[in-house]
């Protein structure tokens, strides 16, 4: 982890282009690369997988059938986590395996890690017990002391702690070069990739595991979004058509998305497969009124303008009706002719994992030369495979990020 | 002309402004006076009833006026105040116009908010349906304040607006190493050449009944409640856990070149950062101290300093049986026989463990140690642990000029970070 200065160095000469060499991905569409490559290359998009009953009136994209032990072999480790952390650890394992680094002790021991995490998984039983009892009592603070002391499972605290997803990745996959956890909803995912990118470009890191996970099937998380009335209710609708439905437009999705990022020199030295290069990435925030958000997005999209063949946009739009419309109109204006795909329509919205998921899908689509089918009636077919992909995420409350990915073939 | 690049040709990173708040008070001057006088900020908890709890003491910050009594408001207010102080010291009055790196505690809705929701929701229809009822109540009447109070990005949003920082702020948590990680991210950004300055802030105002009980259930907290100011006793034989506390600190980082060119006063150099994750256990460190050793060595290497250059160590020193033993082992491995000649003190003996804020709070105190030529003591050092042979600056401050300081931070989840700071001129 010795850091060298890069300020004025030509990063290309130094082999410090940032490339994606491993992808871990879990959505309601399935586990791992195969089902996602299939959906990206299919003639028509698959049906969304939506759970309508379990958390009604909120539709959610659920966790697919998954065998945790494939990536978390020890039952003891599985028991120390709830599904949110399990999913992150599982997906991180997929990314390491895909990069060919899973059992490479030296590589994992020097690998940096940035995880975009939420947290705060509640014990619904304990919380219910406490509020029900509190309705009958006046000494609520005393009641809290009694019940929390006797009812909380000590291990639940660790399952709630944001940085324990990374902690469990260290334990299960032996990734120990460094471990950093970023928080703050969608922006955490943007900053995680952005920070990893700049560290590699500057020679501060040679290989970094980056990503996040989100568990949608949690009433405590749904409550957060319902506090601003942002959920779509009762049924699934295509993402760009959510204004036709009831509610605010968001449908949450259970997602795990991790990437292995490397400097080109590091990847080439070990003969790694390269999915795509990240050529630009940036995030910003601020007030969103009076066209400010549009101006920020236009500036973030600036590097994606211009020539360069077919462009594919993976929009991480949350589905919130007004925000989605505003993002789409900026994209239509700045990148006319690009093929737009709102992946949140198929996978759901996944907060911290949303931006990493977009990069995972974009890298996969570029690598396999996919003519990605429209995910939505408002999207048009692609004439040819894309040579570049733009990934956007507009946070449901704040924060915007854009990445530009370039296909490898064009680089050669 | 003096060098503004380090041994690897990277920009040197200067600290040009500092602000701090702990249970000892607001501002660097008051804190430093109390800290060097050996005053403890630990007291009986008054924020919530503690009847029936095994731990009833903390280093909470109770002197702030808050619009609402919750962890977000408290964490924000502390971060705002320490940032105002740091920017004033740095002589910066307009928009900061550089990135913000914020270490902030993971936050959740307060229990009072859950009770309020339960009061306006219908009664229980079936077992374990509290959240169904909460959701129904929210559908009836949304509550944007509830949303904002539970978003992890809320504190950095307000700081970014208030101080005019640039770009997307990073909010991070590396448990008890968070404050050090925030500083490390700022150092890296300046070394990358992406910015001349970075605002690094760490804050933790999250002490509540639930947070205290959670740590108590892990047997991490001292239960020596009486007297409170004696509970935190790092490196002693009768230490029995840390004392949970609150605090905040802000450091203004600038490339030395930019600082000098605007004529800023330089309070010290952030010379090196090291980190190494531990895979041994979720809450316990590798018994051999391997990752902590690697972390300290990485910080020294990054700083381009040999072991014998370090004149003082600001220890993590939590007063838990395990940390202090492990940290001593790690320091012994790195500094070998030289350790005997290095004073090592723990600020936590007086301010408790400020968790998310600790790394930054202790970095400020480390810099102040070099600035003033005074080593703050480790108080409550009455019954030394015979297995830990250290010069802990026992009980009373000491005059000593030091030019390079190591500050350690270790946390749950295998988090380890160390900082090396040097006096100006570097």
From TrEMBL, chain A:
<dbReference type="GO" id="GO:0004315">
    <property type="term" value="F:3-oxoacyl-[acyl-carrier-protein] synthase activity"/>
</dbReference>
<dbReference type="InterPro" id="IPR016039">
    <property type="entry name" value="Thiolase-like"/>
</dbReference>
<dbReference type="Pfam" id="PF00109">
    <property type="entry name" value="ketoacyl-synt"/>
</dbReference>
<dbReference type="InterPro" id="IPR000794">
    <property type="entry name" value="Beta-ketoacyl_synthase"/>
</dbReference>
<dbReference type="GO" id="GO:0006633">
    <property type="term" value="P:fatty acid biosynthetic process"/>
</dbReference>
<dbReference type="InterPro" id="IPR014030">
    <property type="entry name" value="Ketoacyl_synth_N"/>
</dbReference>
<keyword id="KW-0808">Transferase</keyword>
<feature type="domain" description="Beta-ketoacyl synthase-like N-terminal">
    <location>
        <begin position="78"/>
        <end position="265"/>
    </location>
</feature>
<protein>
    <submittedName>
        <fullName>Beta-ketoacyl-ACP synthase II</fullName>
    </submittedName>
</protein>
Automatic annotation (TrEMBL), chain B:
<dbReference type="GO" id="GO:0004315">
    <property type="term" value="F:3-oxoacyl-[acyl-carrier-protein] synthase activity"/>
</dbReference>
<dbReference type="Pfam" id="PF00109">
    <property type="entry name" value="ketoacyl-synt"/>
</dbReference>
<keyword id="KW-0808">Transferase</keyword>
<protein>
    <submittedName>
        <fullName>Beta-ketoacyl-ACP synthase II</fullName>
    </submittedName>
</protein>
<feature type="domain" description="Ketosynthase family 3 (KS3)">
    <location>
        <begin position="10"/>
        <end position="423"/>
    </location>
</feature>
<comment type="similarity">
    <text>Belongs to the thiolase-like superfamily. Beta-ketoacyl-ACP synthases family.</text>
</comment>
<dbReference type="InterPro" id="IPR018201">
    <property type="entry name" value="Ketoacyl_synth_AS"/>
</dbReference>
<dbReference type="GO" id="GO:0005829">
    <property type="term" value="C:cytosol"/>
</dbReference>
<dbReference type="InterPro" id="IPR014030">
    <property type="entry name" value="Ketoacyl_synth_N"/>
</dbReference>
<dbReference type="InterPro" id="IPR016039">
    <property type="entry name" value="Thiolase-like"/>
</dbReference>
<comment type="pathway">
    <text>Lipid metabolism; fatty acid biosynthesis.</text>
</comment>
<dbReference type="Pfam" id="PF02801">
    <property type="entry name" value="Ketoacyl-synt_C"/>
</dbReference>
<dbReference type="InterPro" id="IPR014031">
    <property type="entry name" value="Ketoacyl_synth_C"/>
</dbReference>
<dbReference type="GO" id="GO:0006633">
    <property type="term" value="P:fatty acid biosynthetic process"/>
</dbReference>
<dbReference type="InterPro" id="IPR020841">
    <property type="entry name" value="PKS_Beta-ketoAc_synthase_dom"/>
</dbReference>
<dbReference type="InterPro" id="IPR000794">
    <property type="entry name" value="Beta-ketoacyl_synthase"/>
</dbReference>
């Amino acid at each position: 982890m010795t850091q060298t200065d890069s300020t004025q160095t030509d990063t290309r000469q130094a082999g410090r282009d940032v490339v994606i060499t491993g992808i871990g991905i879990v959505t309601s569409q399935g586990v791992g690369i195969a089902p996602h490559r299939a959906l990206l290359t299919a003639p028509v998009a698959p049906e969304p997988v939506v759970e309508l009953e379990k958390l009604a009136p909120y539709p959610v994209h659920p966790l697919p059938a998954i065998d945790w032990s494939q990536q978390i072999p020890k039952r003891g480790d599985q028991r120390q986590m709830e599904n949110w952390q399990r999913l992150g650890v599982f997906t991180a394992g997929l990314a390491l395996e895909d990069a060919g680094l899973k059992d490479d002790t030296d590589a994992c021991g020097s690998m940096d890690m940035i995880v975009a995490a939420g947290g705060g998984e509640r014990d619904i039983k304990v919380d219910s017990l406490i509020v029900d009892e509190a309705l009958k009592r006046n000494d609520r603070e005393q009641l809290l002391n009694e019940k929390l002391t006797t009812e909380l499972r000590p291990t639940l605290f660790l399952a709630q702690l944001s940085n324990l997803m990374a902690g469990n990745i260290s334990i299960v996959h032996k990734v120990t070069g460094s471990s950093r956890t970023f928080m703050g909803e969608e922006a955490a995912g943007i900053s995680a990739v952005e920070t990893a990118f700049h560290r590699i470009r500057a020679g501060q890191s040679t290989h970094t595991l980056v990503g996040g996970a989100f568990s949608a099937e949690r009433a405590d998380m749904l409550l957060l979004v319902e506090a601003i009335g942002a959920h779509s209710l009762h049924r699934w609708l295509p993402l760009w058509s959510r204004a036709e439905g009831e509610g605010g437009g968001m449908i949450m999705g259970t997602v795990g998305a991790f990437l292995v990022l490397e400097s080109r020199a590091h990847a080439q030295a070990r003969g790694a497969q390269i999915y795509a290069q990240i050529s630009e990435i940036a995030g910003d925030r601020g007030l969103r009124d009076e066209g400010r958000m549009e101006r920020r997005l236009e500036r973030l999209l600036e590097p994606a303008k211009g020539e360069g063949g077919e462009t594919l946009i993976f929009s991480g739009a949350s589905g919130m009706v007004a925000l989605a419309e505003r993002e789409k109109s900026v994209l239509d204006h700045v990148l006319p002719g690009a093929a737009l795909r709102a992946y949140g329509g198929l996978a759901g919205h996944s907060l911290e994992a949303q931006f990493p998921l977009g990069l995972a899908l974009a890298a996969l689509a570029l690598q396999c030369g996919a003519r990605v089918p429209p995910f939505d009636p408002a999207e048009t077919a692609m004439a040819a495979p894309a040579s570049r992909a733009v990934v956007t995420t507009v946070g449901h409350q704040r924060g915007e990020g854009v990445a530009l990915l370039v296909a490898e073939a064009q680089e050669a | 002309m003096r060098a503004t690049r380090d041994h690897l040709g990277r920009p040197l990173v200067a600290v040009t402004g500092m602000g701090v708040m702990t249970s000892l008070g607001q501002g660097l001057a008051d804190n430093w006076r109390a800290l060097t006088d050996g005053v403890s900020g630990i007291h009986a908890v008054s924020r919530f009833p503690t009847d029936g709890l095994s731990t009833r003491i903390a280093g909470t910050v109770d002197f702030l006026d808050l619009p609402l009594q919750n962890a977000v408001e408290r964490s924000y207010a502390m971060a705002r105040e320490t940032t105002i102080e740091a920017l004033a010291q740095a002589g910066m009055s307009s928009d900061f116009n550089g990135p913000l790196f914020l270490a902030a505690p993971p936050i959740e809705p307060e229990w009072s908010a859950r009770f309020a929701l339960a009061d306006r929701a219908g009664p229980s229809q079936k077992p374990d349906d509290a959240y169904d009822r909460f959701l129904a109540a929210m559908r009836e009447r949304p509550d944007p304040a509830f949303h904002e109070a539970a978003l992890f990005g809320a504190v950095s949003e307000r700081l970014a607006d208030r101080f005019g920082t640039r770009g997307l702020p990073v909010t991070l948590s590396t448990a008890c190493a968070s404050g050090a990680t925030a500083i490390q991210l700022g150092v890296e950004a300046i070394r990358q050449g992406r910015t001349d300055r970075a605002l690094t802030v760490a804050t933790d105002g999250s002490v509540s009944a639930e947070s205290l009980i959670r740590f108590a259930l892990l047997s991490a907290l001292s239960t020596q409640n009486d007297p409170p100011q004696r509970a935190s006793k790092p490196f002693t034989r009768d230490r029995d856990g840390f004392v949970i506390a609150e605090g905040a600190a802000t450091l203004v980082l600038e490339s030395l070149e930019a600082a000098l060119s605007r004529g800023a006063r330089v309070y010290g150099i952030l010379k090196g950062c090291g980190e190494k994750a531990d895979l041994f256990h979720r809450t316990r460190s590798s018994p051999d101290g391997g990752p902590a050793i690697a972390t300290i060595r990485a910080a020294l290497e990054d700083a381009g300093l040999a072991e014998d250059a370090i004149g003082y160590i600001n220890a993590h020193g939590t007063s838990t049986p395990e940390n202090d033993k492990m940290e001593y082992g790690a320091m012994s491995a790195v500094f070998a026989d030289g350790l005997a000649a290095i004073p090592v003190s723990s600020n936590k003996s007086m301010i408790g463990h400020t968790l998310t804020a600790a790394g930054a709070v202790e970095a400020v105190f480390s810099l102040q140690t070099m600035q003033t030529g005074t080593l703050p003591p480790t108080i409550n050092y009455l019954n030394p642990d015979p297995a830990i042979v250290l010069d802990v600056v026992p009980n009373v401050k000491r005059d000593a000029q030091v030019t390079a300081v190591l500050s350690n931070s270790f946390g749950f989840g295998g988090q380890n970070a160390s900082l090396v700071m040097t006096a100006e001129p570097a």
